[in-house]
Amino acid sequence: AEAVRRAGVTRVVLDGYHFTWEFQQALRDAGAAVMTVDDNGEVGRYVSEWVFNQNLHAHEGLYPRREPYTKLLLGAPHVLLRRDFVAKGAPPRVVAERAERVRVTLGGGDHDNVTEQVLASLELLEGPLSIRVVVGAANPHFERLQRACAALRHPSELLRNVEDMRALMLWADFAVTGAGSTCWEACFLGLPFATTIVADNQVAIAEQLDARGAAKNLGWFTGLTREGRASALDGLLRDGARRRAMSETARTLIDGKGAERTARALLEPRA
Questions:
Q1: What is the spatial distance between Cα 60 and Cα 74, in angstroms, rounded to a whole number?
Q2: DSSP class of 217
Q3: Which residues pair with 136 in a beta bridge?
Q4: What is the mean pLDDT of residues 174-188?
Q5: With contact defined as beta carbons under 8 Å apart, do 231 and 253 qualify?
Q6: Residue 31's closest CA among 19, 49, 52, 57?
Q7: Mean pLDDT (whole number) for 4-29
Q8: Which of 62, 134, 172, 177 could make an S-S bridge to 103, C-beta 3.0–4.6 Å?
Q9: Cα–Cα distance between 87 and 236 in angstroms, integer?
Q10: Is residue 125 within 8 Å of residue 237, measured between CB atoms?
Q11: Global pTM?
Q12: Which pLDDT tens digit goes with each residue over 184-239?
C-alpha cells in the first residue's frame, strides 16, 4: 500500500490465491484500482474492480461474494497470449494423417518429472517419430532427461528456456502438455494435443478442453501407466480425422484478442 501511495500507482494486478479481500481493499484504500487473477474462486470474497479468469470453465457463479462494482472478465475471450503469438498470427495448419513430430512440455518446473514418464510411453510406440522436449529453467531433472532422451529409440531433442515457442508449435504435428497456459497457445495455432494433469488447478481446464473436443484429457499423471498412456497416444497419432477435428475446434476458442480486451478494461475509469 505504501508503494502504491509513493509511486502514485493507479492499477494493480494481483495473481495468487493468498491475496485476500482485505489485501485487495488495502490497495484500493491506497488509491489503486485492483484486478484479481483467479482460477476457481479460491479467495471467496472479492472487492477488487475486476476479477480475471481466462479459463473455459469460468462463470459468474464462481463469484457470488463480489461487490456491485466488480466486473468479471471471464473465459476464452480474455485469454492472454504472448505478444509474438498475436503479432505473427495463426497460419493454416495441415494435419497429417499420421502424426510424426511430437512436442512434450509439462510446465516450467515439473518436480514430479512427468516428462520422463511421457517419454517412457512414447518409447513404446512404433515410428517414425521425432520428439522435441521443452523444459523450463526451474526443472530439476535436466541431466536425467538428457540421458532419457539419448536412450530413446526415436530421434529426440531436449530444449531448455525456449524463446520461440510458436515456432516449435508450428513444427509439431501433436503435443503432450500439462493443462496450463500453453494449452491456449496450442489452441490458437490449431495444434492437436493431449493434456496430463499435474496440479489441482489444471483439472477443470483439462476437462473443459476435452468436453469441447479441443484436446484429449489423459487424466492425472498419477493414474496413468506407461502402457495406458502409450495406447492413448498411439490412437491419437494414428487418427488424422480426430486430430483434424481437434485442431478446427481449438481454433474457434481463442481469437488472440484477449490481451487487448483485458488491457482496455484496465484503462476504464475507476468505479
A1: 8
A2: E
A3: none
A4: 95
A5: no
A6: 49
A7: 96
A8: 172
A9: 30
A10: yes
A11: 0.90
A12: 999 999 999 999 999 988 999 999 999 999 999 999 999 999 999 999 999 999 99
